[in-house]
Design brief:
There is one protein chain. By secondary structure, the chain is an alpha/beta fold. Helix content is 29%, strand content 30%. A four-stranded mixed β-sheet has the order 2-1-4-3. Strands 5-6-8-7 form a four-stranded mixed β-sheet, with helices on one face. The longest helix has 16 residues, at 103-118.
């Protein structure tokens, strides 16, 4: 049985027929350059696909005769998956601070945080405690309050400051427009 030369034949999608799965006598064939070859027998189309080390993929099964194209099926599946995924992916940027952070350093972190939010990214602000700093976690929460007061513009706190082990985490997202 003829399988994909490029390794995409193992997990073929259920609704797309490829190579030997195409069970009709004739197909309308489009070559790998996009030129229409015409109506040819399936055996001839498969031989041409094997010769060019490509796959015969049924792109329009409802047409009479079905339209098939010579292409790399793995690449085709990747492109189809990419088209179906949401357009813009939101990144989560991380900012690390300390409980004893200076005023100027905090201003710089807020400036970066504002830039991330303006670009449409979420930001995760993390504060780590070392040694004796763990005895006073309320000082860390005061720093988070100061940070939210300094942060101007439209934003939403998605996860309020929460103490988890030796760190406090907070997630801030851009406001919904």
């Amino acid at each position: 049985m003829f399988t994909s030369k490029k390794g995409g034949g193992e997990s073929i999608s259920k609704h797309i027929r490829v190579n030997e799965q195409i069970r009709v006598k004739e197909v309308r064939l489009i070559d790998n350059e996009g030129k229409q070859v015409g109506v040819v027998p399936v055996r001839e189309a498969l031989a041409l696909a094997e010769e060019k080390e490509l796959d015969l993929v049924e792109v329009s099964p409802d047409a009479v005769p079905p339209v098939c194209k010579l292409l790399d099926f793995g690449k085709y599946k990747y492109q189809m998956r990419k088209r179906q995924s949401p357009g813009k992916k939101i990144d989560v940027k991380e900012i690390k601070i300390r409980p004893q952070i200076g005023a100027h350093d905090l201003e710089l972190k807020v400036k970066n945080l504002r830039r991330f939010l303006d670009e449409g990214h979420k930001a995760k602000v993390m504060m780590f405690f070392r040694g004796r700093e763990m005895a006073r976690p309320e000082l860390g929460l005061l720093v988070f309050e100061k940070l939210t007061q300094m942060l101007t513009g439209k934003f939403s706190i998605e996860l309020k400051p929460k103490l988890e082990g030796k760190s406090i985490t907070m997630v801030i997202g851009p406001s919904s427009k």
